[in-house]
Amino acid sequence: MTADPSDLDTPLKKLVGEKTAKALAGHLDLHTAGDLIYHFPRRYDERGEHTDIRALDVGEQVTVLAQVQRTAVRPMRQRRGNLLEVTVGDGSGGSLTLTFFGNQAWRERELRPGRWGLFAGKVTEFRGRRQLNGPEYVLLGEQTDTEAAASEQIEEFAGALIPVYPAAAAVPTWVIARCVRVVLDTVAPPEDPLPATVRASRNLVGLGTALREIHRPSSREELYRARRRLKWDEAFAVQVTLVRRKRDAAASPARPRPGRAGGLLDAFDARLPYELTAGQRDVGVEIAADLATGHPMHRLLQGEVGSGKTVVALRAMLQVVDAGGQAALLAPTEVLAAQHHRGMLDLLGPLAQAGELGAAEHATRVELVTGSLGAAARRRALAEVASGTAGIVLGTHALLYEGVDFADLGLVVVDEQHRFGVEQRDALRAKAEQPPHVLVMTATPIPRTVAMTVYGDLEISTLSQMPRGRSPIASHVVPAAEKPAFLDRAWRRLREEVAAGHQAYVVCPRIGDDTSGADEEPPEVDDNGRRPPLAVTEVAPLLAEGPLHGLRIGVLHGRLPADEKDTVMRSFAAGQLDVLVATTVVEVGVDVPNATMMVVLDADRFGVSQLHQLRGRVGRGSAPGLCLLVTEAAEGTGARERLDAVASTTDGFKLAELDLEQRREGDVLGATQSGRRSHLRLLSLLRDADLIRDARAEAIALVEEDPDLARHPALAASVAALVDADRAEYLEKG
């Protein structure tokens, strides 16, 4: 097995054999020596220390370090043969049953009490006990006859620290460890791309040392040093990319859109029925200054649900219209686009009635473009957009289609940016002759370090104040399985709200009728004994016939025709419905001040940020809001702890940090959206805030001195590998 000693592009089949290479490629998407060497251990077990078995979640694919406690053989009930049950423990009172079917006496001899091993499989539950059915395993220490052939596997765990890799059922962690050892022994480490001055000033070990120590650590201290160096590489690559893109953006031309005294914006401010918050005024000043410059604004506006982002965006749009341009707002759903349209028409009044009797002096028109427009209405709307008569254009992805042409697109506002793909956002920007100004809005609060890493090339504005008149929202977890009476009380509480003249939402994770999960999600395959998630089309009739009998109930989900969705939302907003049973289609933008209560069924099936978004639909008027999170998740499980955290605070930034801790960092950094592998593996955007800050400072200094990295070719190649073209595009278009 020979390979170019400096080539991490060497195919794995040349190093570990065709069969193993095929398994690594098929199950873990690892194809080259470089792919494998950057497939870092998930954690490290230490001999004599235990894995916390009690913390394992049902359905999780796990590898545990545990000790055999006892074995038992009993006949199978349904068929001939015996069943071997092996109980393994972790030293803390937690235990796990390993189940092997068929006559396997040799396993009983091998799995003797007192032996330690790594056991890999999927956690299931049977009669209240956690178990692994037919797990793969490797025993540590002395070998039996059956282990002799696998002695190489044992060698991987000769050290005190045992690496446990992200693995698959067909490729357990010890197979990965064996392959890593082959690569480390065969392929020389790559040239160190980090400038020597940076390595010295930041006290970083060399890349070759870091790669060896992260896989086969000689001590905890050396492992820490290795991880720190590799985290630095990840942070530095992203920051160099962002700093260069911010520098390039500042140099590109855009048409200035300065404010105009006595124009639409001034008229709008004069008729606004409430006072802007100090935060809205301050952010408005920042945006106005950006729009007046000769290079494109690229600003992220973040704020809690209901903090008044839409009014800030509308004021920016009016400034652009005052300067002779057009502004477009891209919304993720027709419900939200239609609501923005109605809301802006109400706020603007005669200012949005250009060409009509009674229109204001500087009036414009506000057009809505969605996929469900009839042919005649679509032709009229597109004509107004193309001629420039419509200064403000609102729509869904229908705005991106060919045939939607603007006279002079000066500002693009993207609402709820995480709901759009990069290509969709960029397609709208491409409809302008010169790069337009871009305002990205999100109601999902972003921790500072995330913003610094993902949005480092955007200016960031935050609305932290809530407008006057907003009411507090109380949230409680309803443990339906443990205390069914609590769920009965929840429905009585909902009836009390309706009796007091208010309205309520009931949210389910699935539409129903044998469809997949929530509106955009794939189906959740449940083979762990959990029932399928509750569905709108199944829950609504049960509520109508049962605990909510006699109330006026409406149904809303993403598969309804657009006109039907609009009718349902209008009926709910007008108070003609008491309860709206819906999917997460109500997650963003739905604004019904009279709705004071929300019941989220199967709340553990939703993410933290999603629950926070959903909760923001209530408490939007003068009456206090109530959100009940109904779950069958048991106390002490990760799912229950997540819900308890959501119930304990309405601080979106705290919840965003919790959400970030529980998600793969790669998702946050765009690997999922870009659909490409990312080597961003180790960086924790919360725990490594200081390292990210230092990496940004070094990146700024380096790019100022060498913008094209011409004097640092190895670094340029490393940045390109860590932040490939697709990822760079993702970061740029963010």
Automatic annotation (TrEMBL):
<dbReference type="InterPro" id="IPR014001">
    <property type="entry name" value="Helicase_ATP-bd"/>
</dbReference>
<dbReference type="InterPro" id="IPR001650">
    <property type="entry name" value="Helicase_C-like"/>
</dbReference>
<keyword id="KW-0547">Nucleotide-binding</keyword>
<keyword id="KW-0234">DNA repair</keyword>
<keyword id="KW-0378">Hydrolase</keyword>
<dbReference type="Pfam" id="PF19833">
    <property type="entry name" value="RecG_dom3_C"/>
</dbReference>
<keyword id="KW-0347">Helicase</keyword>
<dbReference type="Pfam" id="PF00271">
    <property type="entry name" value="Helicase_C"/>
</dbReference>
<dbReference type="InterPro" id="IPR012340">
    <property type="entry name" value="NA-bd_OB-fold"/>
</dbReference>
<dbReference type="InterPro" id="IPR033454">
    <property type="entry name" value="RecG_wedge"/>
</dbReference>
<feature type="domain" description="Helicase C-terminal">
    <location>
        <begin position="486"/>
        <end position="661"/>
    </location>
</feature>
<dbReference type="GO" id="GO:0004386">
    <property type="term" value="F:helicase activity"/>
</dbReference>
<keyword id="KW-0067">ATP-binding</keyword>
<feature type="compositionally biased region" description="Acidic residues">
    <location>
        <begin position="516"/>
        <end position="526"/>
    </location>
</feature>
<dbReference type="Pfam" id="PF17191">
    <property type="entry name" value="RecG_wedge"/>
</dbReference>
<feature type="region of interest" description="Disordered">
    <location>
        <begin position="511"/>
        <end position="532"/>
    </location>
</feature>
<protein>
    <recommendedName>
        <fullName>Probable DNA 3'-5' helicase RecG</fullName>
    </recommendedName>
</protein>
<dbReference type="InterPro" id="IPR011545">
    <property type="entry name" value="DEAD/DEAH_box_helicase_dom"/>
</dbReference>
<keyword id="KW-0238">DNA-binding</keyword>
<feature type="domain" description="Helicase ATP-binding">
    <location>
        <begin position="290"/>
        <end position="463"/>
    </location>
</feature>
<dbReference type="InterPro" id="IPR047112">
    <property type="entry name" value="RecG/Mfd"/>
</dbReference>
<dbReference type="Pfam" id="PF00270">
    <property type="entry name" value="DEAD"/>
</dbReference>
<keyword id="KW-0227">DNA damage</keyword>
<dbReference type="InterPro" id="IPR027417">
    <property type="entry name" value="P-loop_NTPase"/>
</dbReference>
<dbReference type="InterPro" id="IPR045562">
    <property type="entry name" value="RecG_dom3_C"/>
</dbReference>
